[in-house]
Write a structure and sequence with these properties.
The protein is mainly beta. It has two helices and 37 strands. It folds into two domains: about 375 residues, YVTN repeat-like/Quinoprotein amine dehydrogenase (Methylamine Dehydrogenase, Chain H, 7 Propeller); about 90 residues, Alpha-Beta Plaits (2-Layer Sandwich). Helix 1 crosses helix 2. The relative contact order is 0.18.
Length: about 500
Amino acid sequence: MSSQFRLVLSLTAGAVGACAPPPLDTPLPRQGGAESSQLPAPPPGTAEATDPPPAPDDAAPEAPPQFFRLAQAEHRLELVPLGDTLFVRGGGMPLALVEGDRVIEDERYGKGLEGFIGLRGLAGHFPDDAWALITLSNGRVGWGGLRRWNGRTWKVEGADLAQRWLYTGASPWVGGSLLTMSFNVMPFDTQQPVRFRRLGKMAKGALPLPSQSSCGTLVKASAFAALPSGEVFAAGATCDDDKFAIEWWRAGETRGNVERFDAPSPHNETYVLAGSPDHVWVIGDSWSARSVVHFDGTAWRELPHPLKHPVVSASLGPDGTLWVVSSQLHDSNNVVGGVFRRSRGGDWQEVPLPSGARLPVSVHASAKEVWLTADTSLFRSSPPAGEPQPLRWEYGQQFPGALRIPKAATAGCQHVFVLMYGITRVTPKDYDFPLTRKAIAGHLDLAGAKFAETEDNGKRYFGAFVPTLAMGQKIEKLVRKQVKGSQPAVLCHQPRIVREIRLDLATGNVLP
């Protein structure tokens, strides 16, 4: 069985996966108005693809599969694999089990997950040894936690991580154990922003030790995968030149090997997918460009690819086939991208989307099926016995979808956002942030900054979209210095704008 983990983060409630980021370093809430220190799819009966295509002859490339609708919801859906078990979530449904031709809705699957910000991933085996890696928040910063399934609910397992530390996921490792990796979302705040930990059965042997350099941990990894045979692979950006890099540990070794690439930091997304010691894929996405790298057990090779848009999902099937969703939603009328696959030793193929589908969201390749969510539907590569199942999940419950943690902005970031404050429920909807306006008054060099109220997961935040990293850093310093108790953060992030607040930079006054 392949080991695969993605850094699942969701930028806005309306973005792919219908999800939202945690508020990082927002001031704690105060009462009153003060600045807080805190696509339509066919109806269920619509016919899907007809008969599967004929089997290809030996000389032709394998034909891509067709997809058939299994279920139709009212909100975007995302696949959440857990070993050989598959869950799906979306709208107000935290988790629903996919079993046969049906999606099983059982409130137990969400018990114990109330009150947190998002799910980082599931790991282990369901139902006897299942783990949930989650992100919690106090409205100011986020941190990671573990929950373990006991057959009725998800129970707290051990102490949560320190603030700003998050789990990337968990992977089957030696001796039947699970290996987790946690990372600091503000890696410049610590010399060692990457840590490994073992879960479950305690196997013998030491944990991997990330390589160190004069700037701290050399590879600031944000995604990883491990294998039961003992190998570990992690990917991220280097601390000295902020370029794409991979560190890997051979079975039984604690000291890793680092491979650098002349590619930008994967600050948007990183995927590490390991099928075997000689078949490992790593995808680094810097939003404007993507790097696809393969390891054959001896050497890493960066390979050409057809991925022109941000990678939002990736899966490595047991047969060695790599599946990738590369798509982007500009607005309801401008959807680009598609689903791609690459068989082991083969070429890339674009897989036709199901009839009526426009925006692919997530993909998962199991031993028997390939699963896909697109728009508000769940598809698979074999037809169900009956009509697609309608899902009536009301939005508004906790845990609305996948979580996409915004990262600290770097020089290569395409969308620099200064997150300044969380906004309390009692704050007036037309509040104009006088302390912030006072802090920036007279700074005409901030022309080009767009100040706005944003919304993520039903919560409101105030921040600024800026054209350069330097401008973002200046606003962060001004606000931190002049607004007592504030802890702004400069992020690589593109949240949804609720209300733009136009300011006269000379006076700090609000413009009509």
